[in-house]
Peptidase A2 domain-containing protein (Polarella glacialis), 323 residues
Amino acid sequence: MQDRYVGPGYDVATCIVSQPGGGEVSLNFMLDSALTTSMLSPRVAQSLEIQGLSGSGEERRFTSSTASNQRASSVSLPSVRLKGTNVTLGPLRPLVVDFAQDRIGRELGLPIDGMLGMEFYERFGVEVDGDHLRLYEADSVERLAEDEGMVTLTTAPLAAQLLAVSVELARGANSADGPTAVGEDQRVVGILDTGASHTVLNWAAASLLLGFTQAEDEERLVEEHGGTSSFDVSGRRIDMPMFEVALQLRGAGREPQGSCCFQPVEVAIGDIALFATLLGGSTESPAALIGQDLLIQRPMLFAARQRLLCFRSETRATIQLLD
């Protein structure tokens, strides 16, 4: 995520949370499939008078696209339901953590009070289509996708309960000249991240797919194509060049199935914290973070429990996420 960006493709669910002293409050939770658990902003925890009231008093570890195996205290939210429905998320034990989306959202008039991670995606089949968020029983998605003729990709489990597909260059959609022709027969691990505004390749993936190296090409790419910045959990700024490329997602796992092509997007290139976390502390293995610039191009149904990522056949006009 850019330092000041919250925009199209981010999936926000408004929830009704019971307060410890009685009454209810409406909170906005952003969905993030690269987050292992749920989070609550410290400002919200303090306003609800539950700061530090963890059920066990223990700290828990978590992983996100900007945090590498961090620890934080948790709190107990005994009753949480989706606004306007009777759908309950049960008791939640979110970690009390500062996250960039909270600050950015408040500056833009859209407060993001908390985050819902993979524990939410494991509980429901989650379909996003424009302004609509639809939830299905977690084990019903495979049949639903088949009945409605959706393109279905299998996914592979990663560390920290995250899921991945395979990523390659879309055949015939990239320039026949220059570095984009290098990796047409190569694939890299693609980590699914509904909380990321744009897709990111680490430098190993950029080398395999595009023929770029950090030492030789980073400054040139920034000059010719521009760049963006991100911040990890420690506040460290990561500057990344951008490059336009058309990608194709393929199924992963023991019996990989399915593929789906997407319109060209400007991917960022850099070694963000999540890559090292999931790759055993190394960034030498080629990997990509699959963000909303790809995922919003088609109506998407994500079934984490069944390890499926499904897309409807119709495409939407590409929305440019980056300034």
Q: What stands out?
A: Confidence is low (pLDDT under 50) at residues 1-7, 51-57, 316-323. The longest strand covers residues 237-245. The CA atoms of residues 72 and 190 lie 27 Å apart. The domain at 12-123 is CATH 2.40.70 (Cathepsin D, subunit A; domain 1).
